[in-house]
Records
---
Amino acid sequence: MPTRNSPCPCNSGKKFKHCCAGKKLAAGPCAILLPPDFLTPCNRPGSGGLKCTYCDQGLFHCAIHHGQALQQMRGHALRAHPEKVPGMLARTKRDPKAIAAIREQYAKDPANWQKVVEQLWPE
């Protein structure tokens, strides 16, 4: 755990007490690239991390938010590396709810979902 006057582990350049000390997330994964012995933003001890099989993207998270962090990493794999997860794409094509969710997300952020759309619906 960093001390109040030490540099913040989020690399903001601020002191811990003026940056992440006492921050809490209302909901969602407390994913942050920190060593597991630091407290995560939800102020629970870190339980571990997840790393993308295909790139250096990684998340540390607390035990309570493991499921959400895992879902976030699966989403990362689908968005960033759709050509490497053909089984996930095949399951997605058969699931109307997943298709609807992808279309909704694509409408909000086309650049982030472009690779998935190209794999699902080649022109």
Note: The beta strands are 46-51, 58-62.
---
Amino acid sequence: MGYNTNNPDKPKSKAEVICPYCGSPDTELFSLFGQQLLTVQYYCNACHTPFECIKDDDILDDYYVSDRLSEARTSFGSSARGAGNRSE
């Protein structure tokens, strides 16, 4: 994975999730839902292992902020592309 690790505009995360296998803090949110509704899936960029942890407010706040930033960056480009593709 590691596709978000070189983003200089990435805000500092409130929740620092540590990999339970290697102890590295170099993790990223993989999915908002794990096998249970109260868990989220993370991916460790150090040992390349997916793992689950229990949701808390800091994790959900971080997701909400990053989702809003990516939505703001892509909304301008998608609205300009969609204008010319109208079928009558």
Note: Strands lie at 27-31, 39-44, 50-54.
---
Amino acid sequence: MAPGVLPWVAMSGIGERIKEMRLKRGLSQGELARRAGLTQGFIWQVEAGRKEPGKRALVALARALSVSLDELLPVVNEEAPHA
């Protein structure tokens, strides 16, 4: 991958992935929200696919789940799809 080029990651399904990781760790939505400094309502919306978390929320969620961003957001391919 060229320097400065970010890999394309799939945001679709991110809520399902967060929910899976949360449940695997035995955390409620409220506890994950508390650890990440977010609201339980926001966690619910992300897990339900109604909202996509921004960069700051993704970093906070990764930290709260004790995973890297790479684990939270697996790379789909090296380049973004062309429109």
Note: The beta strands are 8-9, 75-77.
